[in-house]
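User: I'm putting together notes for a lab meeting next week and I want to include a structural view of one of the chains we've been expressing. I don't have a solved structure, so I'd like a prediction I can at least talk through. The sequence is below, exactly as it appears in our construct file.
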Amino acid sequence: MMTLKQLQVFLAVARYQNLGQAAEALFLTKGAVSQALQELERHLGVRLFDRVHPHLRLNHEGAQLWPLADEMLQRGEAIERLFQAGGACFLNVGASKTIGNYLLPQLLHDFERRYGWLPRAQIANTGRLLELAEAYALDVVLLEGEQHRPQMAAEEWLQDEMAVVACRGHALADGVAHAPAELAGQRWILREPNSGTRAYFEHTLGALIAPYSVALSLSSTEAVLGTVERGLGITFASRLVAELPGFSSRFSIIRLTQSFSRTFSLCWHKAKYHSASMDSFIRFCREWSPTNQ
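Assistant: Thanks for the context. Below is the predicted structure for the 293-residue chain, given as structure tokens.
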């Protein structure tokens, strides 16, 4: 008989593509993981992985099992929670860095006030979040960048206005609206290439002023702003940063004749089982706005 433990092992091996790493994640021995996987394959009568030493890569049959196994484990966990004290809810949420730094704290605060529990949350760049969602490691992701992966569902969530941020006293921060071409020759401090903010810059303002000089690519908005504050370059960031304490005493906004706005998105794997917790969180996000809290 197929067991939940076998499915748990299968999912871990599918995510890590390595028996040893899957064993570490599950706090099992490598031998126990190998045995459980062999028993599952024997029970189903098919191979679920192609063995390419030292990796195990999902084959067609394994790819078909993945979403079903994930759903079975989710339902099993829901049954356990139903009869545990308090009936705790469980959800894994991811947020890209601008959303995670400036919106997620208030969103989670308001969600807990309504529902009485908190999802697990992690912050990463857009590319990493999509990788985790594709591997069923995240239930819902809040993205600032576009996604074009066919296995992911996405819907528009919030609008975000972008701005060119410079150090206080910058020559172009004179209150006059400048054409994008006037930014030619400026040094740029930008987020890393796999981030939603960087991708949006490259496809919008960056395309208008190319070629442009990128002095530094940094993995956090805080590092970008700290570098800009010291006059090493200018950056392209969400206007949410203007809500930071002391922003006006440290930075200036360079006004442009053209406005730039992007759409934040709610995303999840199309094959992901929608638990009651997941549906509650998605419904709350659809209703929530940072301007009316």
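A couple of points you could mention at the meeting. The chain has three domains: 4-82, 92-157+263-287, 159-261. The mean pLDDT is 90.

User: Perfect, that's what I needed.
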